[in-house]
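Pilot study result, target chain (150 residues):
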Amino acid sequence: MSNDKYASIRLGNQMCFPLYACSKEIVRRYKPFLDELKLTYTQYIAMMVLWERKSVTVKELGEELLLDSGTLTPLLKKLEAKGYVVRERMKSDERNLCVKVTSDGEALQEKALEIPKQMKGCVTLDPEEASLLCSLLQKIMNGFEENKPR
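Predicted structure:
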């Protein structure tokens, strides 16, 4: 059937499905490594931002991770309960909540160093392919940002 009017809605012809399935599988592969740190994947990516920046507003963190406050607030409360972050009102503007990594949170960074190495064993791309994939995905994300509904 070369003239299949439904070809555009066949699962095998979609870019979205392999992206979805791959993303889901990669997060699943992270799980055993993150379980050792007692972190979820979302907590892990939040900690990555905090390890790099040390202190961010909740709004900045949400923008960087593409998470809304309904997802971020419980996540940060759990990280705070574990002693990895503290949340404080900003002195300059008390409407803004700031999240800071603690010394225990910093110590966790050392344990997390092995995770990227462990994950390389789960993904069958050479470094050039991985770099190309990352840049193509970033290009897609940038396109979404440029064409954001107002």
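One observation from the pilot: The helical segments are 16-37, 41-53, 58-65, 69-81, 103-112, 114-120, 127-146. A full batch analysis is planned for the follow-on phase.
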